[in-house]
Structure formats: structure tokens, C-alpha cells
Design goal:
4 copies of one chain form a homotetramer. With 163 residues, the first copy, chain A, is an alpha+beta fold. In chain A, 35% of the residues lie in helices and 34% in strands. A 6-stranded antiparallel beta sheet of chain A has the order 1-2-4-5-6-3, covered by helices on one side. The two termini of chain A are 34 Å apart.
Chain lengths: 163, 163, 163, 163
Amino acid sequence: MSKEIVQDRFNKLIERANPSDLATIERLLKGIERQVEEPKQSWLSSLFDLHTDISEESLKMTIPISEITHNSLGILHGGMTTTLIDSAMGTMANKLAKEGFAAVTTQLNIHFTAPGIGKNVTADVHIIHHGQTTMVLGSSAKLENGKQIAYATASFAFIPKSW
Amino acid sequence: MSKEIVQDRFNKLIERANPSDLATIERLLKGIERQVEEPKQSWLSSLFDLHTDISEESLKMTIPISEITHNSLGILHGGMTTTLIDSAMGTMANKLAKEGFAAVTTQLNIHFTAPGIGKNVTADVHIIHHGQTTMVLGSSAKLENGKQIAYATASFAFIPKSW
Amino acid sequence: MSKEIVQDRFNKLIERANPSDLATIERLLKGIERQVEEPKQSWLSSLFDLHTDISEESLKMTIPISEITHNSLGILHGGMTTTLIDSAMGTMANKLAKEGFAAVTTQLNIHFTAPGIGKNVTADVHIIHHGQTTMVLGSSAKLENGKQIAYATASFAFIPKSW
Amino acid sequence: MSKEIVQDRFNKLIERANPSDLATIERLLKGIERQVEEPKQSWLSSLFDLHTDISEESLKMTIPISEITHNSLGILHGGMTTTLIDSAMGTMANKLAKEGFAAVTTQLNIHFTAPGIGKNVTADVHIIHHGQTTMVLGSSAKLENGKQIAYATASFAFIPKSW
């Protein structure tokens, strides 16, 4: 599609969007703007408005809960919780990888402990095992009120970056 | 934002988008159109262009692999593979739930067996255990060429829908 | 078999046992004595010389590592580590169950992080989620020198004891 | 202990054993005889009377369910089910390992789907992923009547045998 066609289709879509759709489209528009203006490492990060809070000692990632993270029951999709946790853990694992190596998730186990109903969800990360070629990390995902909605552990393998 | 402001911001964004961004925005636009015109059970389904192939005997779900499903390494994000698998399993579990009950994922374990590099990925679902109050399902996610990229099992609990 | 036959077969077995076998048989004999003289809740506990260290706040279980806990590679069998952890978690879960209810393990995920080579292994237990009908517990298994050899999480369901 | 002391303590133990204990001791005696007369790869295999049924295409392992495999609720201990499954999978993984390499379990996830009440339990094994340096296997554990009591998947790493 040419730029004109994209603009035209979007403008027509907005004309017939209901207020609820409009709010969601506005949210997505902001996500697209973020990625076009200041590209993050992935579109997913920009679209879901992922925020990272990283320090020497800890790492936390947060996403807002909204229409675009919901499942068909109208609550946070477990896959989105997993995406948040895997992103947080993966970032930590890559931070800890030796020079020239990347960390990839080989396995992840997650317990869903409460429905994800709230404004946003934050995943922290802790180290369970830091080996030469593999790593095991743990992560707890909590709502803004501190309620834990999921706990996960995952295995990472370090592979040469030339891969 | 008013409809005019949304349109205006989008139109300006398109002006400065590079060809790669434009292709991704076009993909997202189509996802938004799908949800506005014929709402699916979730925005996630429309945005990621989830297709369900369901019969008496089996259930498969497919999503295209693209910029919007990538992680920071430029391959399919493990969280997206998990979202696909959890959606497929959840749909199957709810199909099998008794009247008045919904199925929720209480735990999911996934093995990532190959990098998700390809055009699309499809998850099938099989029953491991069908109990009175709980269920265990298995799912294999494969690329269009048949290559398996993940295998997962998950626990579901049946809860009254009034919940 | 009559008592006399059992004694006779055992006595003949001891005659031809080599020193290494004799040491293991001695270990097993002590386990059998423990269960006959002061029955524990299970033969497994007595045979593997399981010790429980329980207080208001915490719970730990320890077993010696020996010939009878080894796998074919001559190190602690992963199944034995899992048995220890599941016993510790199960004891904790049942301690926390409401009157009239028992806790059963519905799922367990374990990461093996180092080979189990040492004198004994101890599993502690912590609560990840304490719900109305389910519980998620975590457990770390460590050698006597503090080296962690495994980390596990498990799901428990509370069921009426009449079951 | 000298051979005489071991014999003496055992003989006295038998004198005061009740019929139920005697039956269990008889079972253990047979396990000890098996290991002394024809050592298996591990004492665990002999004590729990593990049988392996292996062919070009498949691998199954069976253990009898008895007092010595029970948990405190009087049914098959989940740790024993896991030991059986891990043994079966580990045997398969080592069979498939390249010359000079051994396979070790790095992670195992198990779903317990029914109580282990019966005469014996058999675990079969299937390959989920066969990679260069890692492997994922699946296993179903069933009672003699075909009832599935557990399903597990596990990750294996191939390591040089010199390790």
C-alpha cells in the first residue's frame, strides 16, 4: 500500500469506530509512534508499552493492562504475562551472558496464581542458578497493588552470538 | 483524543515512516480493521491475525510470524509462541468444559526446541487428562514446513462462570 | 515365607556378600529396624533415613546420600531428589491444609542445577501462593556444603479427607 | 558391623516383626538378593524391582506398587512415580547419546493425573525433540489396567563422559 492508501483506510476506519474501539486505537497509535520515533529492541515492547527498570542489583519490567492485553474472558491473557516474564528474564540472562554470547530460553514453567485484573503488571527477576553454559531464573509478576498473579522459573542456554 | 486528532497524528506519523515501518503499520492497520469490523473475542486475536481451524476431533491455531511477533533477536518471541499455545489450549479446554463452567490455565510448562524463523506458526492441541475439575492438555507448535519449535503441557481448572 | 526361611535366606546372603554390599545391607537393615520399632508415616521415610526439621516458620527435610540413592552414574538419582522435595512440600502443604482436608501434588517442575555428590541433601520449602483450593510451593535442595543441586515448584490441591 | 552382628540383628528383628512388616521385609530381602547376586546398574533398580522392556522402537519400565513405594497417604509416592519416569527417560536418552557422551536430566515437569492405586506402574517414553546438545522426552505412567496416573516431559543435556 502507498502512504496515501494507508492514511485513507485509517481515516475511514476512525470515522466508523465506536468510543471503546477509539480508545484502544489511540493506545495502539501511541505504541506505533514510540517505535517509529525511537525504535526499541522490538515492536512488541513499543506496542505493549513495556517499561524496564534496571539497576546493578535488580531488573523489573512493567506493562499496562488494557484491551490489547486481554484474553476472551476480558482479563490479562496468560500469554501476555508470560511474554512480560520471558522478556524480563531474557534481558537479565543476556545481561549476565559472557561477551560474545547470547542467552536463549530453552524452557519455561509458569504458575498462574490470581486473575490479572488491574492497571499494570510488573515482573521482577532473581537468579536461581548461574552456570557456565546454562542459567535458571525465577520471576514473580505482580499487580500495582502488590498482588502476585504469576510465578515462573525458566532455563536459559548461552549460545555464541555468531549463531 | 478526538477522532480528528487521532487521524492527524496517524497521518503525520505515516509521512515520516520508513518503508520497513510502513509495512509493519500496514499489518497493524489490517489487524485494527479486523477488530473494528468484525470483533473477535480479543484484540490480541485480531492484531496478531490468529486463525482457528476447529473440527469435531481437533483444534489448530495459526499466527503469521512478522516484525510484530519478534523479540530483540529478530526471531519469534517465546512469549508469542506461548500466547498462541495458551490460546489454542484455552479454547479447547473451554470447549470441553461442562455447561456453566469456564476453564482457566493454572500452570503451563513449555520447551522451546528450535528458533521460530519462518512465515507462520501453528499450534495443535491434544488431551493428556480430562478430569472432573481439572484438565491437562498438550500442544506442539510447528512452522509451516513442519519443524517443531515448541512443545507445552498445561493444567486447567474448571470454575463456575458466575465467577 | 516363614520367619525361619526369611532368616535363613538373609543369613546365607550375608555369607556371600562382599564388603561393599555388606555396608549397603547394614544401611538397609537399620532402615528396616527403624520402621519395625517406631513406624514412620511411610517405609520410604525409614529406609532412606529421612529427617524432618520443622518449626513454626520453616520446614526442612534431609536424607543421606549413599549407594541406595544413587543412579547408574553413581550420583544422587534425580528421582530421589524429587522424592525428598515432594515429601518436604507435601508435609508443608498438609500442615497448611484446613481441617478435614488433605493436600495432593497435582504438578511438579524441577530444575537440576548441579550433580548430587556429597554426604546428604536437605530440602527447604517456601510458600509461593496460598489459595482457597490450591497452593503453590517452592523448594531448594542443597548439599551439606550449601551447594544447590535442585530447585522446584509444585502445585497442590486440597481435597476432602474422606476421599 | 561384622557379618555375625548383621545376621544377629536381622534375626532378632524378624522375631518381633508383625505379619505386615514381615511381608515388606521379605520384599526387601528379595531386592537385596537381586543386587548381591546379579548387580544392576543401581541398588534402586534392584530394591524397587524395576523391569525394563526395551526394543529397537520403544522403552518401558515397570515397578510393583507396594508398601515400600507408598507415601504417608498409603498410595504410590509421587517421587517414586518420578523416579520411575526419570529412570525410563534417562535410559532412553543415554541410548540415544552419541559415543562418548552421557545424558543428564536438567529439568523435569510432571503432571499427576490420578492416584497410584494398583499392582504396578509402567512408564513408556517418546521423543519430543532430539537436538545436537539437548533432548526433550515425554513419558506417560500407567497402572496395569491402563489408567494414566502421570505425564511428564524432561530436558536432557549431553555431556562428555570424561566429566
